[in-house]
């Protein structure tokens, strides 16, 4: 019963060839069942006299054996399997830590529909390119929070993206330094040798602390890249009670993207600054860096089971039938 439950084909598409081959065998058998092709060029009354070699002998028909040989060949190609074998699992050394800005300014609408939504789209593109890299996610406003620790389960991170919004943060603020410190802790816990931090932000309010934190990360061998979310012209900030936020002079506050500050942040971290249009270039750099330095290592406590291909056991029988079909006088 266990064998029946586990039996399956690794490449079942090959089974589609069976009806065609069986039809071909039937057609060949009917075509050669009596007089073969000679009946088309020799008179029907003269043909039995000319076929002296068949007088008193029972004709041998190889078509059933040919159909059986074709069936065995297709079954072998389809890969029948009913057993599993464990093997050592390997994973890359690359680690990507994503840092998402969830400050109130991320609700600005200079990018449609707003900045935080476009940042989530960017995160989804980065996750699609992660492949075997381990990924962690940190969100920050006034404080920083680890959304997911380092993991290779990218699908789980992707399911959490729609819930990431400034409204879920317990307090408003725009402090990047705590998030960078949290990223450093994840880098130490993840154990990867090639750690890339990607910060998605429209700016930060603690430049002195942030530049100090990023220098510490660089000294640990961590590269920090920055993705600017927003535009230089900016957009008004909405107030909780309605309308737009104003400064003491009664002017509307605009959330502008300070590109120069973000470029300096990326340069300090040894990484690259891009906007959303240039994001594919950053993703290509991350992948190229992982291919260049991310040598795989084995996981001693993880085993991956793979199905064994049992089609090899059909080959001796197939060769035996082919040997009989190759005898003189069969075809």
Can you describe what's shown?
It is a single chain. Strand 5 (134-140) and strand 6 (144-151) form a beta hairpin. It is elongated and about 110 Å long. The two termini are 42 Å apart. A 6-stranded mixed sheet has the order 6-5-4-7-8-11, with helices on both faces. Helices cover 37% and strands 21% of the residues. With 331 residues, the protein is an alpha/beta fold. Residues 54-58 and 294-301 have low confidence and may be disordered. It has 2 domains: 2-83 and 308-325, no CATH class; 90-301, von Willebrand factor, type A domain (Rossmann fold, 3-Layer(aba) Sandwich). The protein contains 11 helices and 12 strands.
- In helices, the fraction of residues equals 25-40%
Find the structural class using helix and strand composition: alpha/beta
- In CATH, the architecture of the largest domain is 3-Layer(aba) Sandwich
- Looking at CATH, which topology of the largest domain would you report? Rossmann fold
Give the averaged pLDDT, no decimals.
82
Task: Give the structure's gist in a few sentences.
With 331 residues, the chain is α/β, with parallel strands linked by helices. The protein has eleven helices and twelve strands. The longest helix is centred in the first third of the chain and has 16 residues, at 63-78.
């Amino acid at each position: 019963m266990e064998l029946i439950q586990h039996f399956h084909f690794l490449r079942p598409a090959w089974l589609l060839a069976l009806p065609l081959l069986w039809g071909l065998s039937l057609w060949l058998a009917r075509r050669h069942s009596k007089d073969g092709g000679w009946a088309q060029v020799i008179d029907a009354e003269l043909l039995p006299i000319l076929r002296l070699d068949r007088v008193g002998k029972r004709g041998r028909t190889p078509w059933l054996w040919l159909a059986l040989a074709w069936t065995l060949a297709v079954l072998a190609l389809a890969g029948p399997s009913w057993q599993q074998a464990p093997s050592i699992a390997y994973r890359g050394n690359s680690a990507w830590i994503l840092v998402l800005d969830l400050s109130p300014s991320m609700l600005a609408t200079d990018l449609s529909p707003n900045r935080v939504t476009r940042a989530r789209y960017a995160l989804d593109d980065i996750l699609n390119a992660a492949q075997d890299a381990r990924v962690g996610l940190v969100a920050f406003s006034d404080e920083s929070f680890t959304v997911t620790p380092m993991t290779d389960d990218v699908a789980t991170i992707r399911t959490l993206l729609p819930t990431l919004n400034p409204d879920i943060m317990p307090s408003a603020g725009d402090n990047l330094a705590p998030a960078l410190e949290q990223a450093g802790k994840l880098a130490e816990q993840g154990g990867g040798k090639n750690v890339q931090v990607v910060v998605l932000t429209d700016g930060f309010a603690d430049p002195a602390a942030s530049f100090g934190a990023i220098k510490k990360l660089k000294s640990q061998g961590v590269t920090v890249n920055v993705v600017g979310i927003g535009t230089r012209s900016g957009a008004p900030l909405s107030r909780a009670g309605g309308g737009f936020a104003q400064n003491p002079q009664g002017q509307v506050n605009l959330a502008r993207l300070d590109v120069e500050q973000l470029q300096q942040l990326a340069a300090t971290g040894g990484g690259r600054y891009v906007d959303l249009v240039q994001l594919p270039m950053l993703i290509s750099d991350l992948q190229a860096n992982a291919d260049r330095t991310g040598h795989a290592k084995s996981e001693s406590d993880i085993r991956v089971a793979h199905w064994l291909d049992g089609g090899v056991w059909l080959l001796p029988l197939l060769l035996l039938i082919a040997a009989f079909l190759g005898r003189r006088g069969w075809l």
